[in-house]
Amino acid sequence: MSVMTLAQSLNSALDTALDADDRVVLLGEDIGRTGGVFRITDGLLEKYGEHRVFDTPVAESGIVGAAFGMAIAGLRPVAEIQFLGFSYPAYDQIINHVARIRNRSAHRFTAPMVIRIPYGGGIGAAEHHSESTEAIYTHIPGIKVVVPSTPHDAKGLLLAAIEDPDPVIFLEPIRLYRAVKEDIPDIYYIDEIGPVRSALGLSVEMISQGGS
């Protein structure tokens, strides 16, 4: 067990997934050399190399489109969009391609990919950096939307999202990144995506599966 913040537990989840499965790759703006705008991917480029953790151009549609192609080809990409308000240029890719591929292909293809997005207010940032427009995505059939609220759930849910055979939008509450600490198992573990945890001390994990 290690005591971690939510941000540290997400880093641990990505580290664990990269180590356990060669198909897992990380991509996004500044996630490599900088370690991400909130340092969630800090140290992973040095550990796993540029072929598995790599920076992209500032092109959200391109990030999601590239991840989608990787997923179709058999990889398990984890793409990062820096803020929820930045995801709109990729909206067409998400709703018309990522979310629909299973039904469009009569189940011949799936998109096992995760789109990580920091979101929410309370940090004194501009409008595109503080939006909480998760409802836009929870109404889309074919994708799951997951929001962890504790460090323990963050690691287990992110690992579950990476294992999922279908696309998951993984929203990370910015204000909770370093708000609390919790004992986190150092091993690989998953928390099932779907059940809503008790309000008496645990976590609201999943907003919606978008209906399908």
Report on the architecture of this protein.
- The chain is of the alpha/beta class.
- The protein has one domain: Rossmann fold, CATH 3.40.50.970.
- 29% of the residues lie in helices and 18% in strands.
- A 7-stranded mixed beta sheet has the order 3-2-4-5-7-6-9, with helices on both faces. Strands 1-8 form a two-stranded antiparallel sheet.
- Helix 1 (6-20) runs parallel beside helix 7 and helix 3 runs parallel beside helix 4.
- The chain starts with a strand and ends with a strand.
- The model is unreliable at 198-212 (pLDDT under 50).
CATH superfamily: Thiamin diphosphate (ThDP)-binding fold, Pyr/PP domains
Quickly count the domains: 1
Instruction: Kindly name the structural category.
Output: alpha/beta
Q: How many strand units?
A: 9
Question: What are the SSEs and their pairings?
Answer:
Layout: E1 2-5, H1 6-20, E2 24-28, H2 44-48, E3 53-55, H3 60-72, E4 76-80, H4 91-98, H5 101-104, E5 114-119, H6 135-138, E6 144-146, H7 151-163, E7 168-173, E8 181-184, E9 206-208
Parallel strand pairs: 2-3, 2-4, 4-5, 5-7, 6-7
Antiparallel strand pairs: 1-8, 6-9
Helix pairs in contact: 1-7, 3-4
Short description:
The chain has helices at residues 6-20, 44-48, 60-72, 91-98, 101-104, 135-138, 151-163, and strands at residues 2-5, 24-28, 53-55, 76-80, 114-119, 144-146, 168-173, 181-184, 206-208. By secondary structure, it is α/β, with parallel strands linked by helices. It has a single domain, classed as 3-Layer(aba) Sandwich (Rossmann fold).
